[in-house]
Amino acid sequence: MGYLVPSAKVIPGELDRDSPVSIHIQLRELIRSYVHHGTKAEQQLPSERDMAERFGVARMTLRHAVEALVEEGLLERIVGIGTFVAKPKVDVTLKLTSYSEEMARRGMRPSARTLAFEQIPATARLARELQIQEGQLVIRLRRLLLADEEPMSVDENFIPAWRVPGILDAGPPSSLYNVLGERYGLVIEWGEDTIEANAATPSIARLLKVDVGAPVLRTERHAFVSRSTVDYSVSFYRADRYKLRVPLQRPGARTRRMY
């Protein structure tokens, strides 16, 4: 695949060499403004050599400015090819909403590919997480979740089978939480998430279309009705497409902010 490298002349603005603001910071902000107002995701930037000549600076100074934007996640480098405008990350506030609700709220088209929808006996690990007996039947739903047809996460949910009789007969649900609430009266009240950084295994990498070993966010969730665990899930998010936001509040403090 070929890439059209634009000329650095397309970047507007000039450096103010009399300004107390350092040159590399001025460069960084000029490039940032160009990215925000003159480019789109995955568009290639002019070469470092061309940009350095355009602004009359050393390549090391130019590289310093670009590297700062790479670290911010605004740009990304592809070794041997060049620097590109990064795709924006989906900023997700951790709340007890379904994936389809969260993506629709952000103007993205959610979809899912079912990888498994079956009844299995609970392993010792599942029994512990769901607070049930080992060997008790559990519904397993594993899906690849997409937004605008792009892989975003691999989700695996486990629900005690006795809570959702007949759920397999209706086929995989498009919105699990909606089915739990509307069909079974299981309105999720609260939950606990555990988040950690992982490296993508070969199977996860294949599904998410990332390199083996690429960073992914692994989230375990326990969703409760009253004090009972109704759903235990494990999700793997593409770290290059997700940013998780966690609302915090001091104990005893009052706030009117609505998340």
From TrEMBL:
- Xref: Gene3D superfamilies: Chorismate lyase-like (3.40.1410.10), Winged helix-like DNA-binding domain superfamily/Winged helix DNA-binding domain (1.10.10.10)
Annotated ranges, domain HTH gntR-type? 21-88
Task: Classify the source by domain of life.
Answer: Bacteria
Q: Which InterPro entries match?
A: Bact_HTH_transcr_reg, Chorismate_lyase_/UTRA_dom_sf, Tscrpt_reg_HTH_GntR, UTRA, WH-like_DNA-bd_sf, WH_DNA-bd_sf
Recorded GO molecular functions are:
DNA binding; DNA-binding transcription factor activity
Residue stretches in coiled coil:
none
Q: Which GO biological process entries does UniProt record here?
A: negative regulation of DNA-templated transcription
Question: Which keywords, in A-to-Z order, does the entry hold?
Answer: DNA-binding, Transcription, Transcription regulation
Stored SUPFAM superfamilies: Chorismate lyase-like, Winged helix' DNA-binding domain
| Annotated protein name in UniProt | GntR family transcriptional regulator
